[in-house]
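Figure 3 (text version): structure tokens given as input.
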């Protein structure tokens, strides 16, 4: 599948040839981003949406005290700046964590795809709701769980997203985040993050080597994270027929 968005949607449903072609048409243009480059800043005027084709990105907001709250980590197949369908200005800053490539998508082309392919429109709604639930779970964790649980939950979240495009049973992965970035996503200092990672290691739940993480006791890590498995509850039986 040439389209990263088609690959993402295709993990959940069988796409028709015309649907794959429609999604591929959204990704004909490509923009390269170096590590650390900002794709868009909060309050920038939005004229395009983006599909991530390669690399990892993050979105964040700057709080009144100058601190940063990371909202999402973004991977190939994710759509960026969907708020541009509603708001004139960007609601978050989006930055490349690695060397990245994105496909800019004009809103008019996106609108035409929705009109021509109602099932794709429904699937984008479904993906948006899956993201909303993930953010809700993160918000609940930030407000009500321990520092160890927050860090464990983030490790599980990143591992699950990375292995969507790899072997589904893979336990080892390169996290690709600094301890400061983990802290900005979990509301902790880098020092506290380091302490929690060492505690997870000491308890035999994870192993670390050169930036690579391995889950040694996945069930134990899930218990430590108060993890709720959402994948098994997905129901897409309501989708319209594909065209």
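Below: residues designed for each position.
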């Amino acid at each position: 599948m040439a389209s990263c968005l088609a690959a993402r949607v295709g993990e959940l449903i069988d796409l028709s040839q015309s649907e794959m072609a429609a999604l591929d048409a959204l990704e004909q243009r490509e923009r390269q981003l170096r590590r650390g480059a900002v794709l868009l800043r909060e309050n920038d005027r939005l004229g395009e949406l983006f599909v991530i084709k390669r690399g990892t990105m993050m979105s964040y907001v700057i709080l009144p005290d100058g601190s940063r709250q990371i909202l999402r980590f973004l991977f190939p197949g994710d759509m960026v700046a969907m708020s541009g369908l509603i708001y004139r200005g960007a609601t978050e800053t989006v930055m490349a964590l690695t060397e990245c490539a994105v496909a800019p998508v004009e809103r008019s082309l996106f609108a035409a795809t929705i009109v021509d392919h109602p099932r794709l429109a429904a699937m984008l709604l479904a993906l948006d709701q899956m993201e909303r639930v993930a953010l809700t779970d993160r918000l609940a964790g930030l407000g009500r769980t321990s520092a160890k649980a927050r860090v464990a939950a983030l490790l599980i979240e990143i591992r699950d997203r990375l292995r969507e495009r790899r072997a589904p049973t893979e336990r080892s992965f390169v996290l690709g985040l600094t301890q400061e970035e983990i802290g900005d996503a979990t509301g902790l200092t880098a020092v506290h993050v380091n302490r929690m990672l060492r505690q997870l290691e000491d308890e035999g739940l994870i192993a670390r080597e050169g930036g690579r993480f391995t889950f040694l006791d996945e069930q134990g890590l899930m218990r430590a994270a108060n993890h709720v498995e959402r994948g098994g509850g997905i129901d897409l039986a309501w989708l319209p027929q594909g065209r």
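The first strand starts at residue 31 and ends at 33.
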